[in-house]
Specification:
alpha/beta; five-stranded mixed beta sheet; 19% strand
Length: 579
């Protein structure tokens, strides 16, 4: 059964979900098939060409026409002296005062990836027709949990480079098994006020853990771990499935991946066409012979093949690297989100229908979100998030030091752990005001007594660092961060502590309080970590810092960040021109 016939076994046409209300002259959604509502027999969908021809013919003969609805076949309407029959009035009372936009919003449901945030799929009205379109794969060992109130969750969005589909063979390796070409970890906060979309570069060198994958013939293949590999081969290579990519992301970030969504090139073309195009902006004209992308400077509306070329090109922007392409993709997705939430999409039944069909045809998901009803549940969880509180960020990286001429990257030794810690602690990168202020107030109150007073200059701070965390190299990485990033040159690695410590502590003398305050500010130490002594120290005597089990990484606040780390990001409500 091909992609276009999946989900149509019950022969229910989407147009049969609509009835004409003669009191208003509008087509309205039938929410159930109770007695007394008109039942329209299912008939084959007419092509868009035929519909256009019918419209033109009607206009030429003076026949009254009606606004089309998704998949609608024209019904005859009574005319003076005519024999056409008027459909009986719906017995469902029309709710007074409800705006058309509000009713359409009630019809919308879940779709794919960032389209979900737009909540604009019409999934509710098309449930029976489209439910079987979704391809469901359950990774071995995956726990398909639902969405629990008061808990954050993470969805891994994977765009593969598989070249199936008309016209896609020209993009790179046409024989690719479908690697993780574009990967985004979408974190939704526990209070549902904000979300972070973390892009993971495909050329990131990382470790891929051992995983099991179910093969097309039903057998289970165990793929051994790989200590150093490009992130994109966590999918497709050696038979790995999306579950292997989920495990790789968990090992990399420390974040549990609850669900995954996977799409290929066709999704970009079909979804952008379904919404009538996506607005993009470029600072200078683009004429890329590789992707065949041609755009004038300034704003353009693109869809279909041109939209795919825009998100695929590496030759037109920045330094022609994958990292700069990620920035362009983030700007594109932010613009697409705005289009999904726009009035022209939400109030267009035709666009909602086209978007629903394109999304469900494109999706491969895990069992936990493997139906329209479950995707609708996900959409409800996301419906209250304003686009201004959706932040796109890229995993901070540096050039791979193991390569003479680096072509791959590795996580930034301090910024990457800081960003992971922020997401783990549910800190918004857009700094939702109330959340940030509450965190600052709590931290300030706890540290008020111990941290009141002057601060020493970083160059005057003396500290010996002991590793009681159980993490190999923790003391040295902290020393490197203190000396290179913070200017604490008088810091010394004292190797392992006599025993493991549950908590990080800073012991200092009364006359070192200004140094202790400075170091506490740098490391985000909670008040409980500060251990003042009773006797003054000598002029050159250092403080003692023991890293405990709560140590998360060099430069990562022990108490959890009270505000977002300083990383480059794009907020979904802002139009940015690609450079």
């Amino acid at each position: 059964m091909d992609a276009h016939s999946r989900g149509r076994a019950d022969e229910i046409d989407p147009a049969d979900q609509w009835v004409l209300n003669p009191q208003t002259g509008n087509y309205e959604l039938r929410l159930d098939h109770s007695a007394g509502q008109p039942q329209t027999p299912s008939r084959p969908r007419r092509s868009s060409t035929a519909t256009a021809a019918d419209t033109g013919a009607a206009a030429g003969t003076g026949t009254a026409t009606e606004a089309p609805v998704p998949g609608q076949r024209r019904r005859r309407v009574s005319e003076p002296g005519g024999t056409g029959q008027q459909p009986p009035a719906s017995r469902r009372k029309r709710k007074q005062g409800a705006s058309r936009k509000k009713k359409v919003l009630l019809w919308t449901g879940g779709t794919m990836a960032f389209v979900l945030v737009g909540g604009a799929t019409g999934a509710y009205m098309l449930y029976k027709k489209l439910d079987n379109n979704i391809h469901v794969v359950e990774p071995i060992g995956n726990q398909s949990a639902g969405f629990r109130k008061g808990e954050a969750f993470n969805v891994l969005i994977i765009g593969t480079d598989k070249r199936t589909g008309e016209g896609n063979g020209g993009y790179g390796d046409k024989n690719s098994p479908g690697h993780a070409d574009t990967t985004i970890l979408f974190h939704v906060s526990k209070d549902r006020t904000n979300a972070t979309a973390l892009s993971i570069p495909r050329d990131l060198m990382t470790s891929i853990p051992e995983c099991q994958s179910r093969q097309p013939d039903g057998s289970i293949l165990t793929i051994p771990s790989q200590a150093k590999a490009r992130f994109n081969v966590s999918l497709g290579q050696d038979g790995r499935d999306a579950g292997c990519t989920m495990r790789t992301v968990k090992e990399l970030t420390g974040l549990t991946v609850d669900h995954f969504m996977m799409v290929d090139f066709n999704a970009v073309k079909e979804l952008t066409t379904a919404v009538g195009g996506v607005k993009v902006c470029v600072e200078k004209p683009v004429d890329d012979p590789k992707s065949h992308l041609k755009l004038p400077a300034g704003e353009s509306v693109i869809e279909g093949e041109k939209a795919l070329a825009f998100v695929r090109t590496r030759s037109s922007f920045g330094n022609k690297s994958d990292l700069d392409r990620i920035k362009v993709q983030q700007q594109f997705m932010g613009s697409m989100l705005r289009q999904m939430k726009s009035d022209e999409t939400l109030t267009s039944p035709t666009k909602l229908y086209d978007l629903a069909e394109a999304a469900t045809d494109a999706l491969t998901v895990d069992k936990g979100i493997g139906s329209l009803s479950k995707l609708q549940d996900l959409a409800k969880e996301l419906s209250g998030i304003d686009t201004k509180n959706i932040a796109f960020a890229t995993l901070p990286v540096i050039d791979n030091p193991d390569e003479p001429k680096p072509i791959t990257v590795v996580p930034h030794p301090t910024q990457a752990p800081q960003l992971f810690a922020a997401i783990q602690s549910d800190t918004s990168l857009t700094e939702v005001k109330k959340k940030t202020q509450d965190a600052k107030n709590a931290q300030a109150k706890a540290q008020a007594k111990l941290l009141q007073g002057t601060r020493a200059e970083a160059v005057d701070v003396r500290v010996d660092v002991f590793n009681g965390s159980g993490i190999q190299g923790a003391a040295q990485s902290t020393i490197n961060w203190l000396q290179n990033d913070e200017g604490v040159s008088r810091s010394t690695n004292k190797s392992n502590a006599p025993e493991k410590a549950a908590k990080t502590t800073l012991t200092y003398a009364p006359n070192q309080a200004d140094q202790a305050r400075k170091l506490a500010d740098m490391m985000g130490l909670p008040a409980s970590a500060l251990k003042p002594g009773t006797q003054d120290a000598g002029v050159r005597e250092p403080m003692t810092l023991v890293l405990g089990a709560d140590f998360k990484g060099a430069g990562v606040p022990i108490a959890g960040p009270a505000k977002a780390p300083d990383v480059e990001k794009v907020e979904a409500d802002k139009q940015v021109c690609a450079k």
